[in-house]
Amino acid sequence: MKRLLVMLLLAAGPTNAADNPMWRSGLLWKCTFSSVIQCERSTDCTPSNQAGEVSIEYGDNRVVDQAGKQVSIKRHYVQTVAGSPIGSEVKIELATNEVIWLSPADAAGTFSDNWIGAMLSPKAGVIVEELRPLICSPRK
């Protein structure tokens, strides 16, 4: 049992950031969202129809939000889990403690080079968390 647990932990570990599978399609990515889920201190979460765009700029090690605010990427890594139907997942941690978590829409890259996922933004105040469902595509 211990051996199985160790094997699972090693198989689920992050790989080198230089192996980022998103880079095969480019270093500049445009991510759009059409809704935002806001969670309040009272534990109520409410979706709203807010649209926007976030840019991931790996070459400059930053993310730019819809207002043009630039946030440094603290770290990013790729994770694969043995036996998972999801090929690779990319996690991007920002200097603001926000997190972007993405999976390829088509892991083989045959039909699409889009990545889908979410951006989680912790907040201070009445709103304690925001979630933006993302669709990301490389900038051409």
Low-confidence stretches: 1-17
- Assembly of the depicted chains: single chain
Number of helices: 1
Order of adjacent strands in the largest pleated sheet? 2-5-6-7-8-9-10-11
Q: Terminal Cα separation, in Å?
A: 49 Å
Query: Can you give the helix content as a percent range?
Result: under 10%
Largest sheet: 8 strands, antiparallel, barrel
Q: Which class best fits the helix and strand makeup?
A: mainly beta
Average per-residue pLDDT, rounded, comes to 85
Tell me what you see in this structure:
With 140 residues, the protein is mainly beta. Helices cover 7% and strands 49% of the residues. It contains one helix and eleven strands, in the order αβββββββββββ. It has one helix at residues 2-11; strands spanning 14-15, 28-33, 36-40, 45-48, 52-57, 62-64, 70-79, 89-94, 99-104, 115-122, 127-138. The protein has an eight-stranded antiparallel barrel with strand order 2-5-6-7-8-9-10-11. The chain is globular, with a radius of gyration of 16 Å. It starts with a helix and ends with a strand.
Summarize the structure in short.
Helix content is 7%, strand content 49%. The protein is mostly beta strands and 140 residues long.
Provide the fold topology.
Blueprint: H1 2-11, E1 14-15, E2 28-33, E3 36-40, E4 45-48, E5 52-57, E6 62-64, E7 70-79, E8 89-94, E9 99-104, E10 115-122, E11 127-138
Antiparallel strand pairs: 1-7, 2-5, 2-11, 3-4, 3-11, 5-6, 6-7, 7-8, 8-9, 9-10, 10-11
Task: Give the key terms.
140 residues; mainly beta; 1 helix; 7% helix; globular; disordered N terminus
